[in-house]
Design goal:
268 residues
Length: 268
């Protein structure tokens, strides 16, 4: 028993509390089943490794600031037939992160762009990469504020640190030229250094209007798309589907016929 107490104390000193907690039970199992000591040692350490990985994933996930927990297994690919499930599964293999390539998810509101972005971000965390999630509007406002206060370089480092930066809902609100320039600075700084996953309900031809400057839009697209995977989702909104199932949204009422013009002739 003295040896067990010493071993327990040593594990605690080495900051292996989970291994220390299961040591006695593992030794009892080994004695009962006549297991080799090497196997017992491996199983004790396995408990510690699993606990540390769980803590690591929890910490990294909290640091990512995801708006909700999502995985690819929760995504209804059958509802979005325009989406290539095999392509998304391949992206979840994280080769794009190793290559510092980007992912651009395009499509109308509600088709699952943010779900996919979060799921790929979670896959990156599982793969050992740092991830950060931010709404496009909040990102640009933060960079504009930092620029006005003369600390843009320092603030940029926050968005350069994660290996994967998720920029959600680009195009929902337009930016002024200062904001567009700040965004260009960030995209340029991350170019070939880290991956960006960007979601947008605007086609590339509309980015000049969103950014208020077609030249800056072209420069951002040049860097963003040079090493990239573009996923275009064309389908119905998941949120609208759920409302329909709940009976909140029904079929559109029949249109009433247009009144005849005063001269009795219809416009052609």
């Amino acid at each position: 028993m003295l040896a067990l107490a010493q071993a327990h104390a040593y594990l605690e000193q080495l900051q292996l509390p989970h291994a220390a907690a299961v040591l006695a039970n593992k030794l009892d199992e080994a004695a009962y089943h006549d297991l080799p000591y090497a196997q017992v040692f491996a199983e004790v350490l396995e408990v510690e490794v699993a606990a540390r990985r769980e803590r690591y994933l929890r910490t990294r996930t909290n640091m990512a600031h995801f708006p909700f927990p999502r995985t690819l297994d929760q995504f209804d690919f059958a509802f979005q037939p325009s989406l290539d499930e095999r392509q998304i599964r391949e992206l979840a293999g994280l080769a794009f992160v190793a290559e510092a390539a980007n992912i651009v998810l395009l499509g109308p509101p509600g088709v699952g762009k943010t779900h996919l972005a979060v799921a790929l971000g979670r896959a990156a965390i599982d793969g050992g990469y740092g991830v950060s999630f931010v709404r496009a509007t909040a990102l640009v406002e933060d960079l504009q504020r930092a620029q006005a206060e003369g600390r843009l370089d320092r603030r940029l480092r926050v968005y350069l640190a994660p290996k994967v930066l998720i920029v959600d809902e680009f195009g929902v609100w337009p930016f002024d030229r200062v904001g567009a320039t700040a965004l260009f600075t960030l995209i340029s700084a991350r170019y070939e250094r880290g991956s960006v996953i960007l979601t947008s309900n605007k086609g590339f031809a509309e980015w000049g209007e969103v950014l208020g400057d077609s030249v800056i839009a072209a420069a951002i697209l040049d860097r963003l798309l040079h090493h990239s995977h573009v996923v275009n989702i064309r389908g119905e909104s998941y949120r609208l589907r759920e409302k329909k199932r709940a009976g909140v949204v029904g079929a559109a009422p029949p249109r009433s016929p247009l009144p005849a013009p005063p001269n009795g002739k219809e416009d052609r």
